[in-house]
Amino acid sequence: MSRRLEWQSVFDEVLLRGLVVEGILSTEKRAKLLVAAASVPPREGACDAAYWFGICPDVGRAAAHVLEERSVRHMTSRVIHIETTSKGDTTKFVTELQDGLKIETCIMRKGTTRTRSTVCVSCQVGCSMACKFCATGTLGLLGNLTSGEIIEQFVRANALEPIRNVVYMGMGEPLANYAAVISSIHQLCEQKVHHVAPHRITLSTVGFDPRLIEDLINDVPDVSLALSLHAPNQLIRDQIVPTSTKVPLHSLLKAAFQFVDYQRALSAKKGKRQMLFIEYCMLRNVNDSENCAKELAQLLKPWKDRAIINLIPYNPTDVSIDFEPPDQTAVWRFHHILKSDHGFQAFVRQEHGQVRTYSCHRALKQRQVGGKATESKPGTAPRGGARIRMHHART
């Protein structure tokens, strides 16, 4: 769904390349210097030529005037709500984009000193995948984020504290906004700007198009990949992840593990063992039985040495179907079958942190039409099967 945007983000790679091609920025080096200068601290509001020249004299006065004329801003979005858990392990903030749409970003902290921070970024407003158990999926797709808007989330988080890992597990399906997501990853990995190591970036996908997973080999071969599987067979997956009806399960798994195999071939000399993260949201009486565990083990058996299974007990959200969290006994029995009986690397991922209830989901459902907030009805945008937001990253 297209969006009408008045301002451009200085972090947008398409903008920066265009300025270099036009000769406004004489070299790519100057473009990188501009982005590096703008990375901290974040500034909201209009930016005139004096501001751009002031933070980065290397761009030159003429280029600074062009940035002002083209409505380039340091930050095209603004934070409207921020909250941290009582334990201090999670901070969530809601950001309003320039057209009034809203997204959520989350910082998660691990370790006794809380220094291993991960930011979970959104790549779309809403999601066209319409996963049955995911609140974001009920929104439909309201719009794609630009690469600059994705980077702005990282810049804000990094201004609060040093960010070690980045996970594309927030709102939206990354492969459904492929160009912007890949562009943002390239920027994050730029050594002279954001300094994020590729293997510390995890891209999570429901895998609605295996061909796009194959494209990752050429575009971002070093990032980690997480596959939102959520079911041990095609029948159950079709029921809770609607887009899976178009993608045979074995074709999806084959494409995902081919990506991992390619990574392993590249990194063999470095002694690294690339793995595919399998995300599995556990729903009571849907996919949490012992038979489901055994069936999942058989499904993934050919790739057992390349898979890490993350079991995520369902966290109740605002969805139309009354899914329930699994019983803890069932969760650990499921885990035991995978790990002890079948030898998989399997982990139970509990909710990382709870904050006081803030109706972000309802706010995100509101679209500004003619100055009035209206509800975006699921079904009015493209629909399919989707992902749940899950918090996991390398540490």
From TrEMBL:
The organism's place on the tree of life at top rank: Eukaryota
Record-annotated Radical SAM core domain positions: 113-349
Cofactor entry: [4Fe-4S] cluster
Enzyme class: transferase
Record's compositionally biased regions (Basic residues): 386-395
Keyword line: 4Fe-4S, Cytoplasm, Iron, Iron-sulfur, Metal-binding, Methyltransferase, S-adenosyl-L-methionine, Transferase
Compartment(s) where it occurs, according to its Swiss-Prot or TrEMBL record: Cytoplasm
Major localization listed first in the record, in broad terms: cytoplasm
Chain intervals for the UniProt region annotation (Disordered): 366-395
BP GO terms, sorted: rRNA base methylation; tRNA methylation
Documented EC number(s): 2.1.1.-
Cellular component GO terms, alphabetical: cytoplasm
GO MF terms held by the record: 4 iron, 4 sulfur cluster binding; metal ion binding; RNA methyltransferase activity
UniProt xrefs under PANTHER family: 23S RRNA METHYLTRANSFERASE, RADICAL SAM SUPERFAMILY PROTEIN
Protein name according to UniProt: Dual-specificity RNA methyltransferase RlmN
Organism phylogeny: Eukaryota, Sar, Alveolata, Apicomplexa, Conoidasida
